[in-house]
Every structure is written in structure tokens, then in C-alpha cells.
Design goal:
The chain has 189 residues and is mainly α. Helices cover 63% and strands 5% of the residues. It has a single domain, classed as Arp2/3 complex 21 kDa subunit ARPC3.
């Protein structure tokens, strides 16, 4: 198998830019009871998956999670350190990684129709992240899964707005910079 792609420097720059975007969006915080705040970071995760594709987006998210693991205050509220991977938001953080892969796979490697971008953001950016986040939050907090899932509905309106914003931004960026959306295509040699 061979891969056609841009030079590694261009990919590294894109990974760094989206890692920085995810970190910067952590400054947008709405605290909620239960230890898991509403942040703008999931918007950055959705955009990374839509624009970078599964491989580069996952590297971007891994960069953020790695920086958090070594103690840098890159998560919402200036949090960082290995402890965040054992707290109520740990599953959501891991869900970002799985979510960007799903988003990138649904979005595909060519021009992204608005409905495909919306589907990717909803399924990967909300569905997958919740699939990882809710059970871990229930486990860490000691609250049963049902009530934890029900309390997570408080996040849904904000996440739906973020999915709509990610879709609109993706479509607008795609129109303005169509070459940026030509991701590496894998072909059999």
C-alpha cells in the first residue's frame, strides 16, 4: 500500500493548529454540577475530524491529551495532569479520540456535503463522545448509569449547537479553501 500525501511538515502544522484550537476553545466554559463542564473544546474536536480526517485529527487530539497528561493546563478551566484521566470527564476525553476517527471516516476524503458533515459531527462528536463519557462518569461518581445519562442531557443543547457550528464552518471553509479538504488518499500499489 502506498499513501499519497502532503509533506510531513504541512501535516505537522495542521495537527498543531488544531491542537491549539482545541486548547483555546477550552477557555469557553460553562460550569455544571457533577464535575463535567460545558466547553468549546468539543467544537474543536468536531472541526478537527471534519477538516483533518481521522489520522491527523486523532494526532491532534492525542497532542492535547498528551500535553494534559504531562501537567500542562490545556483542558477546560486550566486543568491538566494525569489525574484528569481518572476523574468524571476521563471518558469524554477518551471519547474525543474515538469521536474524531468516526467523524473523519464519515466525512470521507473528498468534498463534504453539509448533510455528511452534520451526520459526522452528530454521530462522532456527540454520540461517540457520550458513549465513552457517560459510563466512565457514572463509574467515577458512583451514580448509576441511568441517572448519569439523564443528567447528561444538560449537555445536549450546547453540543447540538456546536455540531451545527462545526457543520457551517466546515462548509464555509471548504468553499473558501477547497484544496485544504483534499486529504491523503490511500491506494493499493
Amino acid at each position: 500500500m502506498t499513501t499519497t500525501s502532503r509533506p510531513w511538515g504541512a501535516d505537522a502544522a495542521r495537527i498543531a493548529v488544531f491542537a491549539a484550537l482545541i486548547i483555546a476553545l477550552g477557555l469557553v466554559i460553562v460550569p455544571l454540577p457533577g464535575g463535567v463542564p460545558i466547553t468549546g473544546q468539543t467544537l474543536g474536536v468536531m472541526l478537527a475530524g471534519l477538516i483533518l480526517g481521522p489520522r491527523l485529527a486523532s494526532l491532534s487530539v492525542l497532542t492535547v491529551l498528551g500535553l494534559a497528561a504531562v501537567g500542562l493546563p490545556v483542558l477546560a478551566g486550566g486543568r491538566g495532569g494525569i489525574g484528569v484521566f481518572f476523574g468524571p470527564s476521563a471518558g469524554y476525553l477518551l471519547g474525543w479520540l474515538a469521536g474524531v476517527v468516526v467523524i473523519g471516516l464519515i466525512a470521507g476524503t473528498r468534498r463534504i456535503a453539509w448533510w455528511r458533515a452534520a451526520t459526522a459531527a452528530l454521530l462522532g462528536g456527540i454520540g461517540v463522545v457520550y458513549l465513552f463519557g457517560i459510563p466512565v462518569q457514572a463509574l467515577v461518581t458512583g451514580v448509576p448509569l441511568g441517572p448519569t445519562a439523564l443528567s447528561s442531557l444538560a449537555f445536549l443543547p450546547g453540543d447540538l449547537l456546536k455540531a451545527a457550528a462545526a457543520t457551517a464552518l466546515c462548509v464555509a471553509l471548504q468553499r473558501a479553501y477547497p484544496r485544504a479538504f483534499r486529504r491523503a488518499a490511500v491506494r493499493v500499489a
